[in-house]
Structure formats: structure tokens, C-alpha cells
Amino acid sequence: MKSKTLRLLDYNRIIEMLSGMAGSELGRKRIATLDIHTDVRSVKEALTETTEAVSVIVYKGSIPVGEFGDISQLLSAARKGRTLSMRELLQVRRSVAGAREVKAFLSKDVPEIPVISEISDLLEPQPGLESEINRCILSEDEIADNASPELKRIRREIRNKNEAIKSRLYKYTSSRTLQKNLQDSIVTVRNGRYVVPVKREYASSVPGLVHDQSQSGSTLFIEPQEIVNMNNQLKELELAEEAEIQRILQKLTDQVSEHFHELNNNQNLLTELDVINAKGRLSVAMDACEPEVTATGGLYIHRGRHPLIDPEKVVPIDVSLGRPSGDGGASNEEGYSTLLITGPNTGGKTVTLKTIGLFILMSQTGLHIPCLADSRIPVLRNVFADIGDEQSIEQSLSTFSSHMKNISEIITEAGPDTLALLDELGSGTDPSEGAALAISLIEELRGKGVMVAATTHYTELKKYALSTPGVENASMEFDVETLSPTYRLRVGLPGRSNAFEISRKLGLKESVIARASELLDENQLNFEDAVSKVEAGRAEAEEQIAQAKRIRERAEEKLQEASKEAEETRLSREKILEDARRQAAAIIRDAQDQVEEVSRELKASRDADKGHRTAAVADSRRKLREAAKKQDSHTAPKKREKGARAEDLKVGSLVKVMTLQQRGEVETPPDAKGDVTVRIGSLKMNVNARDLVVLKNEPQGNKERQRRKSYARIAAGKARTVKPELNVIGKNLDDASIEVAKYIDDAYLSGLTTVNIIHGRGKGILQQGLRDQLRRNKFVKGIKPAPYNQGGEGVTVVELKKK
Predict the structure, then answer these.
(1) Does 742 fall in a domain?
(2) Cβ atoms 439, 461 nearer than 8 A
(3) Fewer CB within 10 A of the terminal residue: the chain, N end or C end?
């Protein structure tokens, strides 16, 4: 791509934004040299990297690639035998630690990210080297005592020798005979040796070595003769310390050199991950998405927003251009390869051109674009642009001449799989000549297989687009009432000049406007009138279409609500039947326990009568058969029993609901229709008397204890199996709603107080639908988005009520 095109389309500003998202200087340098790919495979791979980075950021947060530093030169120096300093070794440690942290971050609790995982798997942390540098080096100018036993011994002796010298000197300076010779009774250091300050006139009275004098010359700093040997010994220890430090640094440097290839490869991989993470962060910041890319299909941008315009002010555009794909394309079924955009100045025509070109360049760099996911971008060999009014004083070129020079270069270099963006084509000269020249230029580019998007004011070009296959009109909408552009692009309809309407709104005399209409060419006037009528008809059609869409959306919402209620009813019935089966199984277990208890009693009473034991066993077996029959009554289908009479039903009566084969308790007296409210466990429902059978000899206390035992067993089972989070990413709203509702019930039964619903961001349909459902759930106390580093808006944190 030509650097001039990149500048005109503000591509460099996008790269600057991307660079600001990187965590390391190496990442920023790599971003500055990113390739604009021209083959579909490379573009798809680069976009997949960005998509995976967005998944990680939404699910878990940004990859922790910080400023790991460039250690390539240090590695080369270590390999050549130079000893690295403490500061340089700490730089190596930061790089090693960065590789370890990134690999650990990407090794668990992440979505499916094959490309990023493949890069992460190649990272080779060096825990031994990192640990050794941490153990030995405390800061850029301090090495630890425990770096080696020898260093620890030498430093201990240095401390002891320092104390011995200070002690000797303090005694020396405390002597009354010497105090009159000293300037001060202090001990100081000169040239690394302990000295005492002596008045110059008494220097001969203090035998020793003179190391320095005061600025005035009145004081000499003398090393007393009696501590010369001690200072010499201290100096030897300090030299030994320095030698041992160098040995330790050389040992660490050797370890760095041994891992030269691994550390160098880690740095390259971290740089690559930093760039990928930056692309993901930019996508999230722009609320962008991965478009479909193709080598044969045309361009289709759905709700595209220019990334450099304030998101609060930018107006999304829909635009298509080029050959349709195999499915017929979107909004470009005829496959026009030339789009002529007309409309008033400052109406957004140039922004539209830049949006088209910038989206292509961003996509081919592997960046997501701010639009809807059904957008499609072609992979082109080159993009050319002639945008803006440029004059060249040095070359004595006017605006028209500058345009023609640029377009001439474009015609020379353009060909198939290229795009030409031409702003104000043919302007700057006589209108009739400019229009003719513009049509000729377009035909030349079309003949070379170039896709063209151009802006113009010429009516001749509007007519040319209407009558030429493969060429399409488009216009930037203008609100005559407010005298301001709406910045909305309308494909398929040429724009009007609106000069007469604007003049009339601004107060120009009607007679002047009428005279101007008379002077206007009749064909031109008829064309403008036709455009006005088409605009009015299209506006009315669009309003009707929008109304039909709203009606359809409401109908779909009602259908979804009905389906949801039906599914909830089905699930509720299944839950009741499952509870019944569990209760029946519990009865069997209780009976079996009774049999075992009786058997133990029989074995314990060996002297009891044999006939008595036989009767006890028979009684136990009878209880077991009765329990089995009870289980069959819950699980096996039976013939319908005769319903109860309304007068037989009293509050507190135990009944069986024949439609559900479940037992319950009457809570309200029968109404005029014979309907009563029956409680089955925690569920209450209205049932007619003819669907009930009154049960006798069934103490309510036993049933209540059995129900509580069943509830306790259910809750205990849930507590062992329910996880604190549910992932419904990729599911439609209906399936996700059913799964979330069941999950919330299970979580509430298990005693959980807080759970996470992972639904991702996407278009927000799944997120909004699930949150509306959760707000209506009786077990939910409150909901909120997760923190940014735990998924942000892609995760909903649900606080449950206490049981």
C-alpha cells in the first residue's frame, strides 16, 4: 500500500491507537511495522488472533504482558563472554518472570484459543534461573549476603574488622595526650581507609600516613601507624568481596548464556502475544468485531462507524460495493462495482470514502472493525485514494491539477483486485468539462476491473449511474427543515442539491427562486423533481418496513414468552414426578432398613420361639411388598380412579392428584365450580374435585417428615454437584434461558449465595435476555456485571436469597 494512501485514510492514527494498547516497547516497535496482508489466508489468521484475544479479555481479562524489556543485546553479550551487571541480570529476570506469568495465565480457565495457546505452549519458563537471580541479587547495586557461603564469610569478617578498627581509633582519640593535637575527636574515612583529623601544627606528633587535608589546609587527615595493618587487612577483605561478587555474577551470566536460545525465543513470543493482546484491547475499546473476508465477494459494511469519530456522535452507515459473493451478496445483488455518492458539502461523503478504505486496511492488518458481524470485506491487492483539496506551490499545481496528477498515477497502477476512492471527482474546472472528464475516468477504471467509490456534485454523473449497469447512485441524507445533514448514506438514490429549498428556508425572495427555476434547464428541473418524488416514496416505504419489523419483533417476543412458559410448565411437571420417584425410593429404603433391623433382633434373641421369629420375618416381608406397591403407584401408569365429590373435600384433607399421580393437601375449600387449591410439596395449584381422590388413614405428620427427608436428600445432592458458574456462550436465548433457570434452582437448593453466568458480550441479545429473566426469578436477590478483569459485561454475577 502506498504511504500517501495510508496518510489520506488516517491509517497511521489507527496504528498509533493500537500502539498505545501494547504493554512493551518491543510490542510497540512490532506494531509500527505490521504488514497489510494481501492474501485471504494471512488475513484470516491475523483476524483469528484478534478474535481469540477478545475472548480472553472478555472471559478473564487482558493477557498480563507488561514491559519485559529488550534483552537480546544482553543475551548476545553473555554468549560472547562478558559478565552481566546486577542491573542487566535483573532485566533478564523480568523477561523470565514475564514468560512464566503469561504461560500460567493462559494455561487454565480460558476459552478455546488454539492460536494463542499454540504460542503460549512454546514459552519455556526458566524457574531455576529466575530463582537463582532472585536469591542472589537484591537490587541494581546490591547483592545478597547469602549469594554464596564465601561471600557471607567475607562480609562477616569485614564487619568484624570495621568494628575492631573503630574501637581502636576511639581509644586512640580518647587519649588525653592526643586530644589537644586533634581538630575533632572523630573517626572518618579517606580513600577507603580510617583516619583521624589532626591540626597541621601537631602533625609531627601523630605518626602515620597523611591521606588528605581540609579545604583551608589547617587540618590533615592522618591514618595512625598502629592501625595501618588493620586497614590493610580490611582492604584485602574488600578486594576479596569484590572478587567473589564478580565470580557470582559470572556464574549467573553463564546460566543466562546456557539458555540463550530459550530466552531469545521467549522474548519473541512475548512480543507476539503483546501485539495480539493489543489488537484485542483495541477491538474491545472500539466495540468492534471480526468481519467475513473473501477474495471473490464484494464489500458490505453493516452499521459501520468511523473509528476516529466520537462514538457518541458518529452515525453508522450501510454500504456495499463490488462483485457479490456466492450467496448473492448483501445489499448488492446486482454486483455494481462503482458507487457514486452525491449530497451537500459537510454531509459526510468524504467520511464515507475514508470509512470504506480504512475498514479494508484495518481488516487486512488483522484488526477488528466497528460494525456488525455480518459485514464482509474483500482482500485487495491495493487501495488508492485521492481525497481532499491539495495544492502544490512548489510544482505550481492548482487543486484541479493536483487531483488530475493523483488520478493519472492511480489509472497507471490500478487493476483487478484494487479499489479507487475519488473525492469530488472532476471538480475545480468547468462543470460540463469536469463532468465529461469524470465519466471518462470512471469508464477507464471500470475497464481495468477496478472497484470505484467516488463523490461528486454533477447531475450528469447521477444520470450516468442511473443508466449504466454496474454503476450505482448513493446519497447523503439532508434535512431541509433543520438545514443540516443527517450523515446517513442511502444507496440506490441520487442526492439532490437542495439549493432552492435551502435558499427559501434562509429567506430568499420567492421571485428570485422562481426566476432561477425558469433559468434552470428543463431536463435538469425534471430530474430534480423525479428525485424528490422517489425520495418521498422511498421514505414512506422505509417507514412501513420499519413498522412491519417492529410488529414482527413484538410477535416474536410474545412467541418466545409463550414458549418459555410452556417449557417452564413441562420442567415443573418433570420435577414433581422426579421428586415423587425419589420419595418412593426412600420408602423402599426405609422398609429395607426395617427388615435389616428385624433380622438383627432375631439373631440377637436365639432362645426365642422359632414360630415367633418366622412371624417377624413374614411381617417384615409384608412391609417390603407394601413399600414396593407404593413405589409402583408412583411410577407405573394406572387406570383413572373415580374423582372425589366437592362436599368430601375439606381444608387439610389428604388427596391424590390423578393427572400428576401425586399426593397433596387441600388448602382452600371448594368454590362454586368445585375447584380447590392443593399444595404438593412447595408447589400450589388449582385442581377440580373430579381430578382428586381423597386418601384415608394417611397421617399428615408422616408425610411431612417424608417430604422433609426428600428435600434434605435433594439439597445435599445438589450441594455436591452444583458449580459456582454456568457457561452459556454460543447458545441461543431460549436454550440458555431454560438452562439458567434450572441452574438457579439447583444453586439455590445447594445453598450457594453467589454464582456467575458466563454469556459473553456479542450483540447483547443473550446478555439482556438472561438479565431480564434473572431479575424476575424469585430466588435471585440481585445481579450485576463482573469486574473488568473477571469478564466485565460478558459475565453476570447473581446474588441468591438465603433459604
Answers:
(1) yes
(2) yes
(3) C
